[in-house]
Amino acid sequence: MSERPAANPWLVWTLLITLALIWGSSFILIKKGLQVFSAGEVGALRIFSAAIVLLPLSLPKLKTLSARQWKWLFISGMLGSFAPAFLFAYAQTQLQSGVTGVLNALTPIFALLVGVLFFRGKLKRQDIIGITLGFAGTICLIVAGSGGELGNFNFYAIFVILATLCYGFNLNILKFQFSVLTPKIITSISLFLISPIAAWYLFVQSDFILKMQTVPEAKIGLFYICILGVIGTAIALIMFNRLVQLTSPVFTSFVTYLIPIVAVVWGLLDGEVLYAGHYLGIVFIIIGVAFANRPKK
């Protein structure tokens, strides 16, 4: 079988940076939504709104898929969208949004480990160097966060770690199970398959409807989470799945190294202060991404 042509570098980097901007802004949107809704309601609403907006793409393609594809698309939806949406929301009930963004950068480590252990992935020296530099930058950001006070970390950080583990599995599933499906099909149908669970929780198990009827701030909270679902989940996942197809799981997961930078910028706009460790971490992260993306022979 012939090798796939090399991806356009401009397209790859445009997708990577755009995704970093979108997902880096997701934490502030989650924070705004949590001011009105519970963590479960935020997660369910995020998934449901994303699935609804993509119905014109998913419905016409449902009959064209095999049973095997249905199975893997459901698994991908659960690991890549459903579980992280809830886990991040629960984490941010006790963690600052910036801290959550930093912990999210563990995704490349899990993507690499899952790929090597379960998908016969190969470890290249420059991948190791790039990941090491990126992880070093992440540590710098963690130490510098909140004025260098590590005491802010608590049990809720486990939710973010579990979410990044889910992302690590999903990255490899997308790469090795869906090479023949387009990103639009992968995203729209995987969200469609998990949306009934989100809808059941949102409209049956939670107080979402009651809050919309009685809480004055519920409409603005709904707006924030719908933006998160439509742009931060539906549109961004299409772009993300396209990036997975164009590059390797390890490089694609480097978007999570850029996410903390965007989260820090949002913090600055909100009056937060940057410390020297933040700047050092940002430099390490950018160098790590660039190094891991060096052309391979």
From TrEMBL:
<keyword id="KW-0812">Transmembrane</keyword>
<feature type="transmembrane region" description="Helical">
    <location>
        <begin position="222"/>
        <end position="243"/>
    </location>
</feature>
<feature type="domain" description="EamA">
    <location>
        <begin position="156"/>
        <end position="293"/>
    </location>
</feature>
<dbReference type="InterPro" id="IPR000620">
    <property type="entry name" value="EamA_dom"/>
</dbReference>
<keyword id="KW-1133">Transmembrane helix</keyword>
<feature type="transmembrane region" description="Helical">
    <location>
        <begin position="250"/>
        <end position="269"/>
    </location>
</feature>
<dbReference type="Pfam" id="PF00892">
    <property type="entry name" value="EamA"/>
</dbReference>
<feature type="transmembrane region" description="Helical">
    <location>
        <begin position="185"/>
        <end position="202"/>
    </location>
</feature>
<feature type="transmembrane region" description="Helical">
    <location>
        <begin position="42"/>
        <end position="60"/>
    </location>
</feature>
<feature type="transmembrane region" description="Helical">
    <location>
        <begin position="153"/>
        <end position="173"/>
    </location>
</feature>
<feature type="transmembrane region" description="Helical">
    <location>
        <begin position="72"/>
        <end position="91"/>
    </location>
</feature>
<protein>
    <submittedName>
        <fullName>Permease</fullName>
    </submittedName>
</protein>
<feature type="transmembrane region" description="Helical">
    <location>
        <begin position="97"/>
        <end position="119"/>
    </location>
</feature>
<comment type="similarity">
    <text>Belongs to the EamA transporter family.</text>
</comment>
<feature type="transmembrane region" description="Helical">
    <location>
        <begin position="275"/>
        <end position="292"/>
    </location>
</feature>
<dbReference type="InterPro" id="IPR037185">
    <property type="entry name" value="EmrE-like"/>
</dbReference>
<feature type="domain" description="EamA">
    <location>
        <begin position="15"/>
        <end position="142"/>
    </location>
</feature>
<feature type="transmembrane region" description="Helical">
    <location>
        <begin position="128"/>
        <end position="147"/>
    </location>
</feature>
<keyword id="KW-0472">Membrane</keyword>
<dbReference type="InterPro" id="IPR050638">
    <property type="entry name" value="AA-Vitamin_Transporters"/>
</dbReference>
<feature type="transmembrane region" description="Helical">
    <location>
        <begin position="12"/>
        <end position="30"/>
    </location>
</feature>
